Amino acid sequence: MAVPVDDRGFTLGDGLFETLLVVEGKPLNWEAHIDRLHRGCEALGLPKPAPIDCLSAAEYAVEAAGPLRRAAVRINLTAGPGGRGLDRPEQPGRGLTASASPIFGPGWPVRLLTSPIRRNEGSPTSRLKSLAYLDNVLARRDAGLRGADEALMLNNRGELACAAAANLFWIEGRELFTPALDCGVLDGTVRAALLARTGAHEVKAGPETLLAADALFLTNSLIGVAPVQSLDGHDFEDHPRLAELSALLADLVPAA
């Protein structure tokens, strides 16, 4: 799969992506990923790709990567070739590519550090899987250089948003909480499933809220429920509800 040098995804980040888990050749939570991709296309004014085209690209990527029991598949959709400048052609093209990589056992519990890089809650792309992901790249890099596994990102109002590559949840008693989407939060597929299955509360909260929580965890389509071991040096103990939540999502992210 070749990408033209004037592809707008390559030159301007004008496009979207989806990352999903494929187990034994089966893409999990497929409809949720396609629905989110289509919602992103509506928000960005891009033509919606046919689900069968996305599935064919994903299957080709898995086959090209060799026999993989568990694979992380990334589907990239761009506005296609566009020449110089910001303005899209009157009829935007489409670039569709996919890649597959092996994934192994869980890499948790996670050590979190609060990032100095903020999520822009005023940008529509903060809730999309946009190709313009450089803030997340820099936040993760900064966290790694300071000895952590992942970055906790706040928004410009100083409210909790998400991690660089995952959604954030916390537990208080038996109640679950997660930052609201208008805090600049990615509309995660596993986040949405957990909200639907548990009735977790979407809230606006400052980082001090987490220090009073019983437990923290991250979610995405590859890690499922990943416990947080520490945040900025503050340690959290294992919580019995985390295993319960992992089991609740086993159809979307089965144990490795």
Features:
single chain; 256 residues; alpha+beta; D-amino Acid Aminotransferase, Chain A, domain 1; D-amino Acid Aminotransferase, Chain A, domain 2; four-stranded antiparallel β-sheet; 7 helices
Structural account:
By secondary structure, the protein is an alpha+beta fold. It folds into two domains: 95 residues, Aminotransferase class 4, branched-chain amino acid transferase, N-terminal domain (D-amino Acid Aminotransferase, Chain A, domain 1), CATH 3.30.470.10; 139 residues, D-amino Acid Aminotransferase, Chain A, domain 2, CATH 3.20.10. The chain has seven helices and 13 strands. The strands form two sheets. Strands 5, 6, 7, 8, 9, 10, 11, 12 and 13 form a nine-stranded mixed β-sheet that branches. A four-stranded antiparallel β-sheet has the order 2-1-3-4. The longest helix has 15 residues. The protein is globular. The model has no long low-confidence stretch (mean pLDDT 95).
Query: What's the number of domains?
Result: 2
**Class from secondary-structure proportions:** alpha+beta
CATH topology of the largest domain: D-amino Acid Aminotransferase, Chain A, domain 2
Using only C-alpha atoms, the radius of gyration works out to: 18 Å
Helical element count? 7
Label the overall shape.
globular
Give the helix level as a range of percent: 25-40%
Span between N and C termini?
A: 30 Å
CATH architecture of the largest domain: Alpha-Beta Barrel
The total beta strand count reads 13
**DSSP strand content:** 25-35%
Identify low-pLDDT runs. Answer: none
User: Helix and strand succession?
Assistant: HEEHHEEEHEEEEHEHEEEH
Please state the average pLDDT score: 95
CATH class of the largest domain: Alpha Beta
Largest sheet: 9 strands, mixed
The CATH superfamily of the largest domain bears the name D-amino Acid Aminotransferase, subunit A, domain 2
